[in-house]
Amino acid sequence: MNKKLAAALSCGAVLVLTLSGCSDDDNSAKVNDWSKKVCDKVQPQLQKIANANAAIQQQTADNSKPVDVQKTDSAAFQQISQAYKALGSAVDAAGPPPVDGGETTQKEAVKELNASSVAYANLQKKVDALDTKDQAKFADGLKGIANELTKISSSGDESLKKLQSGEVGAAMAKQEGCQKPKASVPSKETGASEGATKPSEPASAAPGKKG
Question: How much is the pTM?
Answer without folding.
Answer: 0.76
